[in-house]
Fold:
Amino acid sequence: MNPTNRLNLISQFFSLTDAHMLSVYEKLGGYEMAKKAIREMKPDAVEAEVRKSKLRGLGGAGFASGVKWSFVPRDSGKPIYLTVNADEGEPGTFKDRYVMERAPHLLLEGILICAYAMGIHKVYIYVRGEYLGPIQRLREAIDEAVAKNYLGEKILGTNFNLEVVVHQGAGAYICGEETALLESLEGKKGFPRLKPPFPAVVGLYGCPTLIHNVETLSYLPFILQEGGDWFAGLGTETSGGMRLYSVSGHVERPGVYERSMGITLRQLIEDAGGVWRGRKLKAVVPGGLSAAVLTADEIDVTMDFDSLRKIGSMGGSGGVMVMDEKTCMVRALYTTMRFFGHESCGQCSPCREGTGWVARILKRILDGEGRVEDIDRLIDIGQFMGGTTICALADGAQMPLLSYLKKFRSEFDYYVKHGCSLVESEPAGVSN
Amino acid sequence: MTTENKILTSELKDQATKIMAQYDQPRSAVLPILHLVQNTYGCITCEAETEIAALLQMPIVDMKEIVTFYTLFRSRPCAKVEFNVCRTLSCMLRGGEEIIDHLKEKLGIQPGEQTSDGKFGLHLVECLGACETAPTAQINESYVGGLTKEKIDQIISGKTK
Amino acid sequence: MPTVTINGQTIEVEKGTTIIQVAEKLGTFIPRYCYHPGLSIAGNCRMCLVEVEKFPKLQIACHVQCSDGMVVHTESERVKKTREHVLEFLLVNHPLDCPVCDQAGECGLQDYYMEHGRYDSRLDEQKVKKSKKAEPIGQTVMLDTERCILCSRCVRFSDEITKTSEFGIFNRGDHSEIGLYPGKELNNPYSGNVVDICPVGALTDRDFRFKCRVWYLKKTNSICTGCSRGCNITMETNTDRPHHGHGERVMRLKPRYQPAINKWWMCDHGRYNYKWIDHGRMTEPVKGSSEHRQTATWQELMRDVSNQIRQSCTDSPESVAVLLSPQQSNESLYLAKKLFVEELKLQHIYLFSPNADGDQDDLLIRSDKHPNRQGAAILGFQEDGENIENLIRRIREHKIKCLYVFGQDLVSRLPHAPITEILKQIPSIIFHGSNSNLTSEMAHFVLPSATYAESFGSFTNFEGKVQFFSQALPALGEARSDLEILIKLANQLGITWPAWDAGDVARDMQAEYQAFKNVIEAANDKEVFSS
Structure:
């Protein structure tokens, strides 16, 4: 691997053909770090590097990975599991798909390092059901890795065993929530669990369990190669390293962009070719659909977790969705809330009823039958949807709802008053 | 007393048993086994639910819960060509709604329906995780991005042959 | 042991106690739907959200365990506003069925709306349509999926208590629905309990459907007589509005919380076993069998019956037989023993069950289908098949002149053919009972008695636990309580017993037999939907 090109850690594999094949991956230095860890390092030492790296969870929660590892009890007498969250359901996010399709061995190497450090011998990769291509690639990669003794029994001549199983999901965004993922993996509906207890202590089959996003694990080989401090230095004070930003929507070049945590949103949009068709920027969702929307005035924010939180949004999954001046924000919000209504598991009342209700009100507004009370009512409903539920789906619905209504209030008022959009919408023009 | 399994033939049962062996608790195999059965038969019938529930020693009502909770499981056979078109934000921003309208018009059906000859089906789905090629659809098993009206027409006429 | 403060009251509690449990100890009620002390924690209704200091978000009281120094506020403005909104969320898709819903008057949504809601509806949208309205899901329960608030109590009940797993929640989001697997029925022996625990009218009782509005019901503490378990019940009656009852006074039986016996539950057999209280009753004293039957006054009958007994006793005490029943109350059996054994010195006094043994399970159901076999045992009466065989032999030998039965139907219970022929050998059959049967048809004297619903008394369950039941109804027609009948009879026979009431008899009974002092008190009244 070529770590000195600091802009292309994970992404160095994306443009190489056949990097998903073991022979190619090995030629690029693949599995060298896993070998180093297993043969030369003590598990504590691996853990120390991860802590120093300030690696944050890149699936959406942004929890410090080193801290998460420290929550797992090693002396419970029960096996410790690792489940890899490859459910990638947060709209606007597609970077894990790239990793699994184009660099599955990188993920496996990261899994191996983590498992070694934590004394884990069984790993389940929970992949969303629609990702048939990535699932195929992962299964092939595992077969290759087992054949080459990187996985399975007595790995690399040591006494360490590790089994990795790819588990196909079946179409439920909520299964990206870690405890819903565990429920689904145990053969039930994806109903998030009451917390405490937390998965680190009581997880899969009642055993201590680590749950990590695909991308988070994929950075582990790089952290071991150059050290945790180095990785931390690539990012900001509190968010170490790089991350894969998924940029989509009204940009010239939608795609995955691996950048430092310290990049600004403005810079990231420019790297993706800027707003398309020469139009002006109107709004951006910076961290997946659950993140509060930002206006064009707010794009000088640094794209790390804490900076985004400070301005009232979130780093989330790194899914950046760009909206140009011709976007109708009422329609965008309706599309958003309809998603949450569709994906709510239905377990608890504020989310189950609230998301559906909000979507219906917005539909009515879009159909030209909005009423004066509607906007304030939406805000009031939104305020009690969040902070009252079993999991964060409703919080994820609340943040866009309240931010759109706050920052684009005039558009909503207009729609209610006039029964049509303030914005002259133009068809995206899906014709050649 | 052995009952003849209509759905879980001995071959499928072998595969199912291998799948179960990968998990530390057999019930975890329910999603992979449902996928196996659906890939073989095209949908999940009550018969299938009964046999799988018996194999995994699960209450039968739990099977119904699972099949109705997860959107990828179908109770009725699907069309030969299933258009699962994304309707979430990035695809909406890049013309997804026009693609959906075009499909409705071209196929003469509403989302959730099949054409009367069983050739084409239309479903609206949420984010497929392929926003960089918006508007994207999953057509049968493959992701097809950068959809345009022309591309849709080509696919329809191509599949009709 | 952690110390926790709720609304300013501090208390020390066991480790592991949840906030909602502690609040109950302090007499503070936290509203809830999905929480039920007899089921696992679901935490999905969100009604019990309370403020806990040092926690930024509100916490559900049903799940959070008390930690030392925890300070909880259950009535702050923030909590009240949240409750109002949670209630609103639950009502968003709930149909306006109150006028046609049996749950009205004991409905969780109605009650909490009055207590915590009182807002004007803001819903201008179409409510989500669910698939099943007024659909029977078995013999006993009616399902209405629109009314369901998805608290999952029924699911947990059928998983954890009966372990039959009939219920599931299908689909997701606001299209979620309660249901059974297509083609399956709810037919376990405890199916009626799901109606009790459903906080709303989604699961209603088919037997009670549209019978009577619950605010017209009078509720009396009673004990089930279906088997020897002695489940605590509430007998719910309506006598003021007979047009609602269609000739019945007992409208329904409901289980009553009793930690020592049945907790929150009762079986279906017990639950629906009440129609006999209003049907097939004998309401007038009668003398003469078959064609010669005629009604009589109590005075007449008492005189005639006492003459018969006195005559038979004089001729030969061996010719009088008494069949006591394990359906009689402790007090009735005690007085019967006093009269027949101690005063009249009769020897052929046997315990004979009206019902055959039935099924038994690990939950509540006992194979002995009588409430008071143990009470009879304490008084020294055991059922013995040999004794009964001897009795039948003696009847055949014309050695029994007078037979006194307490409600049993020998014709159906003794398959010896021809039992009716055998009974015809007895010159004088005295039937003391509440409901007519083939034996009462053959009796020469019918002393109509009050049922347990119309009496005060106690039963002793199979574990020796004594429980009192209260009188829910006046005796029907001319029927009299067992005690009254026995005292009257004693008086006619020259035995000077005063007009004891059931309380007097109970006291004497307990003084004479220590075992009757093992009384289980009724548990404190609990909110109707925590039970």
Q: What stands out?
A: Residues 10-21 of chain B form the longest helix (12 residues). Chain B touches chain C through ten residues (CB under 8 Å). The two ends of chain B are 49 Å apart (CA to CA). Chain B has two domains: 10-69, 81-157.
